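Run DUF2000 domain-containing protein through structure prediction, thanks.
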Amino acid sequence: MLFDTKIALVIRDDLASWQKMNVAAFLASGIAASYPECIGEPYEDASDNKYLRLIGQPTLIYGADRAGLTRVLDRALTRGAQPAVYTEEMFTTTHDEANRAAVRSVERENLNLVGLAIRAERKVIDKIVDKLRFHQ
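Sure, done. The structure for DUF2000 domain-containing protein is below.
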């Protein structure tokens, strides 16, 4: 099935493995919460066990350095695509309100980005992530 939109996660490639997975999970939750139409139906196995709904379209995960993340953020904002952000300072906070305060305290050009997530039309995502490689 060909989707009109794409979901792209861009994760800083110098993070520890646990940090990369943590950032990806938080960013994917931002997409799911903001775009409920991308969520599929609940799952059920042959034994009638019920499972939660998932994002129903592919999510592509790219790696980038700090400059690459800044470039992706600039491209997304220029194209009207509202991203989910995760900054390095968020690793030191203990709750959602503190996360928001950490982001709010820094101007955009000084954000210490470790990850972004964007959902937009396919061609827009392609332009936003141009020249990035899939995360290793």
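The mean pLDDT is 95.
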